[in-house]
Amino acid sequence: MMAPSAHLDRSTVSFGWDRNHDPAAVVASGTELFVEAPDCSNGQISATSTLETFTAMDLTQLDPISGPVFVEGAHPGDVLKVEILRVAPLHFGWSAVYPGTGLLQEEFPDAWFRLWDLTQGDSTELVPGIRVPIEPMLGIIGCTPAADGPHPSVPPHRAGGNMDMKHAREGTVMFLPVEVEGALFGLGDSHAAQGDGEVGGAGIETPADITVRLSVVRDRVLRFPEYEINRPLERASAARAGYYATTGVGPDLYQAAQAAVRAMVHRVVALYRIEEIEAYMLCSVAADLKISEIVNEGTYVISAFLPRDLFLDPPRE
Do you know which Gene3D superfamilies this protein is assigned to (predicted)? Predict the structure, then answer.
C-alpha cells in the first residue's frame, strides 16, 4: 500500500512562525510531503544575478518557510518524526556576505556575492583548483512554537526552525517537539553545501526539490529537537585526505569561534593564494566548527576543520 502524499509548490510559503497561520496543507500521519522549495531569497536571486541584484533585494522576502503543514493527530507534547528522503538542488546556487552578519563581520563589512554552477557533477568550483562537494541540506526544519507570534524565521527555537545543521540532509531523521495542534510544520533555506557553523552567514543557497515523511510519535518526550544520522559523518574522500584545523581559546565561546575561523582564513590564504573573502566564504560553505574543550575552568577551545579534499592542487607554502 502506497503512503499518502501531498505537494507544496514554490509559491506556498509563509514568513515567520505563527500559531495563527492558516495551514497550507492538511496531511495524515505517515504522509510523504513533496516540496518545491524556493531559496532563502524567495526567488529574488537567479542564475544571472549580480551583486547589484543582491543588494537590491526586498529583505521582507528573506527566509520563506514552505508550509505550514497541519499533521492530523499531532497534539502538544507529541513528537513529529521527519524522515528526510530527498533534497535535490536545482542548477545554480549563490553565496553572499550580508553586511552586519557572520562571525567576522568587522573584517568583512562590505556586501559580496557569487554564483555557483551546480551542473558540474558532485562538486562545484570556488576558484580553479578548489572545489566544494555538493552535499544538500536543509537550514530550516521545524514545528511552530506555542508562544504567540509572529516569530521571525531566522533564529532557531525549541521546536526547530533555522537550525542550519549540515546533517539535516537526505537519510537523516529529525524528531521535533510539537507545541501546537497539528504541529504546523515547515521547512526551507535549502543549501547545496554548508559547513557546521555557516560562519560567513551563508551556505550555497539554492532552490530545491525536497521529500520528507511526517509521522506522529506519542511515546517520546522532547524539550528540544533530536536527530538520527544514518550515514557516516564524513565523506570518504575527506577521511582519506585529512583536514586543516585551527583553534580559538578563551573564556567566550563566540570569540573563540571567531579566532578559529580567522586563523583558518589566514591559513588558506597563505597556502593557496586566494582572496581573503574567498577563503572566508569557503569556511562558511565547507568548514565545521566543533567545541573541542569546555570543562577547564571557564577557558574553552573551539576548533575549525576544513577538509583537504577541497584542494586539487598542492599548497604553495
Answer: Acetamidase/Formamidase-like domains
